[in-house]
Design goal:
single chain, mainly alpha, Helix Hairpins, 2 helices, rod-shaped
C-alpha cells in the first residue's frame, strides 16, 4: 500500500468548501429569482392600476378620487423602485457567490491534481519496488540453479 497523501485533509476540506459554496449559490439564486418575481408582481399591479385609473377617468372621477389614485400609483412606483434595488442587491450577491464558488472549485481542482500526481508517483514507486523484488528473486533463483549445477 502506498504512502498517504500528506495534503489529503486539504483535499477533503476543499471538497467541503465547494459543496458549501454550491449550497450558498443555490440559496442566493433562489433569493434572486424570488426578488425578480416580486418585482414582476409589483410592476403588474402598477400596470393594472394605471389601466383602472384610465377606465375610471373615462367614466368620470372627482378631484379627490383622482388625487388618491395618483398617490396610490406613486406608492406603487416607489415600491417598484425599492424592489428594483432589492433585485440589484440580490443579483450582486449571486454574482459574488458565483465568484466564490468558482474560486473554491479552482482550489479543489488544484488539490485534486496534486492528489492524482501523488497517486501516480506512488503507483510508479510500488511498481519499481515490485520489479526490484522480482529481479532479486530471479537473481537468487539463478544463483541457486548455478550452484546446483556447479555441485553436480
Amino acid at each position: 500500500m502506498g504512502r498517504r497523501f500528506p495534503l489529503q485533509p486539504l483535499v477533503e476540506l476543499s471538497a467541503d468548501r465547494v459543496e458549501a459554496a454550491e449550497r450558498r449559490l443555490q440559496a442566493l439564486d433562489a433569493e434572486r429569482r424570488q426578488a425578480k418575481e416580486k418585482l414582476a408582481q409589483v410592476e403588474a399591479y402598477r400596470v393594472e392600476y394605471r389601466e383602472r385609473l384610465q377606465q375610471s377617468l373615462a367614466v368620470g372621477l372627482g378631484v379627490t378620487q383622482v388625487r388618491d389614485w395618483h398617490a396610490f400609483l406613486a406608492r406603487l412606483d416607489e415600491a417598484c423602485g425599492q424592489q428594483s434595488s432589492e433585485v440589484a442587491l440580490r443579483e450582486a450577491a449571486y454574482l459574488s457567490g458565483q465568484k466564490d464558488w468558482l474560486e473554491q472549485r479552482r482550489k479543489k481542482k488544484a488539490f485534486d491534481a496534486l492528489a492524482t500526481r501523488h497517486q501516480q508517483a506512488e503507483a510508479m514507486r510500488e511498481s519499481k519496488l515490485e520489479q526490484r523484488l522480482q529481479d532479486d528473486h530471479a537473481q537468487t533463483m539463478l544463483r541457486k540453479v548455478r550452484l546446483d549445477e556447479a555441485e553436480r
